[in-house]
Amino acid sequence: MPKTRSDALRRVIIPLTLALLLVPGCSGAPVSPVATPTHLDLGEDWGDDVGNGVTLLGTEDALAAVIAAMRAEHGGTMTGVFVDTADRMMTFVVSGRGGSVEAEFTVNGVSTRIVLTDDVAYVLPSPTGEAADGAYACMGVDDPAVARWRTLLDPVRTVAEFSADASAIAAAGEGTANIVLGAEGTLGALTVSRDGPPLPTALVRADAAGTMEVEFSDWGETEVAPPSPLADDC
Question: So which residues are the signal peptide here (predicted)?
Answer without folding.
Answer: 1-29
